[in-house]
UniProtKB/TrEMBL annotation:
Name of the protein in question: Serine-threonine kinase receptor-associated protein
Family: Belongs to the WD repeat STRAP family.
Organism: Linum tenue
Keyword Cytoplasm in annotation: no
Start and end residues of each stretch annotated as Disordered: 332-353
């Protein structure tokens, strides 16, 4: 790729404080969707292809550290500094459940079959809520040795993966026994852990290294040193031949998976990059920053004709009119008021960290 060619991202405004987590839904009959968590306490749902705002989930009274969508993008979940995890209807924006915790909730994840919600945070307790019986007390597995930073499911919901804020390593719990069965050793705290779409790799970012682990045998496959501290990394889901990383230098770097060589470097954010994620088809990737914006970047070299289109939110050959109509149906059902650009003052609790 010609390094002199400047990538033109789609810039998504709307959050009034730093964006700390991004999550893409799988591709659904309605297209794919992007949800963002921010310290402004209001997660936002967007069309994953165009970045267009669909709605804002309003109800948290503190910073939201994590947000996710279920497999069908019909429900959203969020983990907050207000000591709750909430589940939302992603079509209407209604709050469906609010699960009380005794401390800040840092991470949440829907099981692949969509029936369970996993939460964790400063209590060091991993809770599994049965969404078919939301009033029932949650199941708890063995305690995390440290404050929980990231959580994910793997092996068709048979294994839980978690990392800590205050110590290195990624721990794997066997869901059936509730016990920690494996630890992937890292020097620094793992700030980002992602299970690849095909279930083959676990991608982790810890300090200034990005590592790829075999998700079935848990051996270290590759480890690359970065030029600065990186907070997040994501593996391209379709071909698995490149990965992205973002961190304190404010840039979004693209690397060759097999060699670790930098292929491209995207500049544009005005603060450290807290989260990066590839879209489910690998045609674009998103970055969220301390500057409060999300930027969606097209993958690979664009021709001049296409880069003009990219600035306007379309790329030649990638616009699905049917999907756009489906998304407009989704937007019509979303009754949350307020426009995208609002930056109204939030409860003081939004600053709780």
């Amino acid at each position: 790729m010609d390094k002199k060619k400047v990538a033109v991202p789609l810039v998504c405004h709307g959050h009034s404080r730093p964006v700390v987590d991004l999550f893409y839904s799988p591709t659904t009959p309605d297209g794919f969707f992007l949800i963002s968590a921010s310290k402004d306490s209001s997660p936002m749902l967007r069309n994953g292809e165009t970045g267009d705002w669909i709605g804002t989930f309003e109800g948290h009274k503190g910073a939201v550290w994590s947000s996710c969508l279920d497999t069908n993008a019909l429900r959203a979940a969020s983990a907050s500094a207000d000591f709750t995890a909430k589940v939302w209807d992603a079509l209407t924006g209604d709050e469906l459940h609010s699960f009380e915790h005794k401390h800040i909730v840092r991470a949440c994840a829907f099981s692949e079959d969509t029936h369970l919600l996993l939460t964790g945070g400063l209590e060091k307790i991993l809770r599994i809520y049965d969404l078919n019986r939301p009033d029932a007390p949650p199941r708890e597995v063995d305690k995390s040795p440290g404050s929980v930073r990231t959580l994910a499911w793997l092996h068709s919901d048979q294994t839980i993966l978690g990392s800590c804020t205050d110590m290195g390593g990624v721990r794997l719990w066997d869901v059936r026994s509730g016990k920690i069965v494996q630890t992937l050793e890292t020097k620094s705290s793992v700030t980002s852990a992602e299970v690849s779409q095909d279930g083959r790799y676990i991608t982790t970012a810890d300090g200034s290294t990005v590592k790829f682990w075999d998700a079935n045998h848990f051996g270290l496959v590759k480890s690359y040193n970065m030029s600065c501290t990186v907070e997040s990394a994501s593996l391209e889901p379709k071909y698995g031949n490149k990965f992205i990383a973002g961190g304190e230098d404010m840039w979004v770097h693209v690397f060759d998976f097999h060699t670790g060589q930098e292929i491209a470097c995207n500049k544009g954010h005005h603060g450290p990059v807290h989260c990066v994620r590839f879209s489910p088809g690998g045609e674009s990737y998103a970055s969220g920053s301390e500057d409060g914006t999300i930027r969606i970047w097209q993958t690979g070299p664009l021709t001049n004709d296409e880069s003009e289109g990219a600035a306007n939110g379309t790329v030649a050959g990638k616009v699905n009119v049917g999907a756009a109509e489906e998304v407009s149906r989704k937007i019509e059902g979303f009754h949350i008021s307020g426009d995208e650009g609002k930056t109204k003052e939030k409860d003081e609790a939004a600053g709780k960290e």
